[in-house]
Amino acid sequence: MSRENALVSAAWVEEHLDDDGIVLVEVDEDTTSYDGGHIKGAIKLDWTTELQDQVRRDFVNKQQFEALLSEKGVSNDDTVVLYGGNNNWFAAYAYWYFKLYGHENVKLLDGGRKKWELDGRELVQEVPTREKTSYTAKEQDHSIRAFRDEVVEAIGVKNLIDVRSPDEFAGRLMAPAHLPQEQAQRAGHIPTAGNVPWSKAANDDGTFKSDEELRQLYKDAGLDESKDTIAYCRIGERSSHTWFVLKELLGYENVKNYDGSWTEYGSLVGVPVVLGDEPGNA
Amino acid sequence: MCGATKGGVSLDGVDVAKEAIVQGVVTRSGEPVSPAYVRLLDRSGEFTAEVPTSATGQFRFFAAPGEWTLRVLAPQNDAVDRKVVATRGEIAELEIDLA
């Protein structure tokens, strides 16, 4: 992958939003944000109710994903352009999710909803109607999804990148600071994990930094290019943002997102946890 | 903005005694600004969180106790920074006017 294949600019979207075969999709943490105004023609995906199983903690299965996209009017050969708030956290999560189920053409709008709003570009309230399709998903691609046992085994062996803020990494905060802090799990991070906050990969306006800056960022953080990499955060959405940078923009081969992330790891009985600003030892 | 409750958005269900809350409103010549984005930066200037302002220009963070910087981004405006101290069990209330 490369920047040209994975990322589109706001100007490009403005020019192509009426094209056949382009489907704009808004995905937000605040799922009401779409209703207040969205890019013309964009449909909405609710990550809490539509992308997650409503009983178990897991994703919707292949059949449910197929039913969802068919209902939304997305075809297998459509180019899906994702954008959202929170500097594209949840849009990057959805990007990773579409890749997990094998969708070919997915792109992320650079800067997401924030850049679009700060540029003063048009938002509309009209909800588009799309004809139903018959979408076929592939089996989940586990080469991009890490599970807990693999993460425990990766301590001291693979690159582990904790993309949360320094205060969450050190155990001083339990969640991003726009959320209440009281949580059941332990604070801290996985031993040997480097802390490269997702935000270091983005400019203030939410657009991604240049490939050169990004490569230097992870090099400075001690990323060993000869090793496989697992990124994690609190619930797997900010680490999707970093997974996108490493895999889709910089083209590193074996990069996985650990969607269980700290809310799973920090609740496991008996696993090692490190407090403080240093990565710690295996 | 007249008549709006301080903090605006309800804190029902949040144990305020356990949180170090920083909240406020972004205005331009006294009028609430939306959309605007408020970033919370830690003492080293590192990004910690960001929220869009509500329709009434309001924002809120659940910080850790200590010194923070708020950075406001709004259309047709340079970024505006403002320092704030968060204390557990208290609500630090700010009005940030872009003028």
Number of strands of chain B: 8
Give the chain pair forming the largest contact, with residue counts: A-B, 29 and 29 residues
Q: Please tell me the total number of domains of chain A.
A: 2
**What's the end-to-end separation of chain B, in Å?**
16 Å
Class based on secondary structure composition and strand pairing of chain B? mainly beta
State the CATH class of chain B.
Mainly Beta
* Corresponding CATH superfamily of chain B: Immunoglobulins
CATH H-level superfamily of the largest domain in chain A: Rhodanese-like domain
Main β sheet profile of chain B: 4 strands, mixed
Instruction: Specify the helix fraction band of chain A.
Output: 25-40%
Q: Multimeric state of these chains?
A: heterodimer
Instruction: Give the name of the CATH architecture of chain B.
Output: Sandwich
Radius of gyration of chain A: 18 Å
Describe this structure as you would to a colleague.
The complex is a heterodimer of chains A (282) and B (99). Chain A has eleven helices and nine strands. Chain A is of the alpha/beta class and 282 residues long. Chain B has one domain: Immunoglobulins (Immunoglobulin-like, Sandwich), CATH 2.60.40. The radius of gyration of chain B is 13 Å and the shape is globular. At the A-B interface, helix 6 of A face strand 3, strand 4 and strand 5 of B.
Features:
heterodimer, A: 282 residues, alpha/beta, Oxidized Rhodanese, domain 1, 2 domains, five-stranded parallel beta sheet, four-stranded parallel beta sheet, 11 helices, 9 strands, B: 99 residues, mainly beta, Immunoglobulin-like, four-stranded antiparallel beta sheet, 8 strands, disordered N terminus
Q: Would you summarize the structure shown here?
A:
Chain A is an alpha/beta fold and 282 residues long. Chain A is built from 11 helices and 9 strands.
